[in-house]
Amino acid sequence: MRIVIVGAGISGLTAYLTLHKHLPKPPHPAPATDHEYTIYEPYNTSPDTTSHERPQDTTNPSTLTVGGGLGVGPNGLHVLHRLDPQLLQDIVRSGYMVDHSNLKNKHGHLLLKLPASGASGNPERPRMHMLAIGRHSLWSRLRCAVPDSVLINKRVSRVVSLADGQNVVYFDDNSDPVHADLVIGADGLKSTVKRALFPEAETDPYPPHYEGLVGIGGFIPSDTVNELVEPGSMNFIFGGNGFFGYFYAESACTDPNRASPCHVSAPGSLLAWWSTYALDTGPPSPKSIDPDDVTRQLRDRYASWTDPVVQKILPRIRVQTVWPTWTSPPLPVWERDGVVLVGDAAHALPPTSGQGSSQALEDVEALALLLTHQLRRVYAGGGKHGTGVDGEKWAVRIAAKQYEAMRRPRVEGILAYAKNMQDRKRDMGLVREYVMYAFMWVLGFFPKVFRKQQEQLYEFDLPGDVQRTIADEGKMKE
């Protein structure tokens, strides 16, 4: 079976690794001893690529933070652990584990403290914390695990899904198209692959939506704020005219537990920061902004905030670009005849969800496990379409439908919660600002509510959900 993955970002690389690990090999006498994988990516994919050489798209993927950092929840880390425990350790070693979040007002007063860890006591499913890590650091660790031979630097211009036969992938350079039994769209908000799901539309019927918010972020040396920032904390600062956040971005090199997702290590030398605020005039282009002017505006905006860490960060800010906050309108379908969307291409979540990367990781594992089950049925002669190309096409189609039916309710629930949180980053009047503070403070008296909510998010049993989906497959129409 020929598998094409469009996009070599976090979800695309993980899709390859997960499929390659799980999919059963074609039975003898198939012409190939294994499935054929190709990842197409228009940008440089060398493992030595720096963060400045990676694309800075105006529709940056939705993650916990902007400006180079992101958060991977315990549920996402469990996906990586099931994929490869050693790879997970390499990734954790490149970031910093946090076990709680502090929600504060603009003067630095703590309003609410939330856990950022799973609650499992099962020794086979260790209690993991949240990983704070640079986006490029996560990407580079995944990239080092993917062989160069499957990566091709080429821009996909169009994908055509076909009910019968292989799907067709066309390229921007007018080179010969390729045919694939499975095409995975891991190409983000401006997904080219998405258009294959709506062939009757002349233009993108579901373009990205600008949320009226922009983000700025970066890194500063942590030694200037070590006495002010708790180890193991992710800090969210709310005010009436914006939002600020910060966390340690790496562990101390000498800490013996720096590769463990279950421990909070001593902080390293970098602090990540980011800010989100309203900009209703339209999404700015990163290439057209004046960094000095944006830096000045940012300092003016937060000049009255007395949170001590924010005031330490502001003089050290050097803005390089601005990230508008985009989301994707809900898509009526995520798959069509063996063309399947994952991650931001299927469901771009607001950064406030804190689950952009984790949900992408869950997507690719769910798809891989479901396809593995269906291919095993086909190769064992259990499918009515035979064990050859027609059987593989049937397996892909059924697995894709199961994947969407399984994943959609979870993602939509996370989206609803994130949209509510996102509104607290917009400009508001003084009365509404202090009502927001009071609401957060009162919530702090009901920790069990948050613990239950966090357990549902972080302790999601994805393999178990896959097994339940498989058990119900007789109810699905082929």
Automatic annotation (TrEMBL):
Q: Which InterPro entries match?
A: FAD-bd (IPR002938), FAD-dep_Monooxygenase_BioMet (IPR050493), FAD/NAD-bd_sf (IPR036188)
Per UniProt, the keywords (alphabetical) are: FAD, Flavoprotein, Monooxygenase, Oxidoreductase
Q: Where is this region: Disordered?
A: 40-66
Pfam families, per this entry? FAD_binding_3 (PF01494)
Q: Which GO terms fall under molecular function for this chain's record?
A: FAD binding; monooxygenase activity
Q: Does the keyword Cytoplasm apply?
A: no
What Gene3D superfamilies does UniProt report for this protein, alphabetically?
FAD/NAD(P)-binding domain
Q: FAD-binding domain spans which residues?
A: 333-376
Residue ranges the record marks as coiled coil: none
* Keyword Glycosyltransferase part of the UniProt annotation: no
Family that this chain belongs to:
Belongs to the paxM FAD-dependent monooxygenase family.
Record protein name field: Extracellular salicylate hydroxylase/monooxygenase
Organism, by scientific name, is Aspergillus saccharolyticus JOP 1030-1
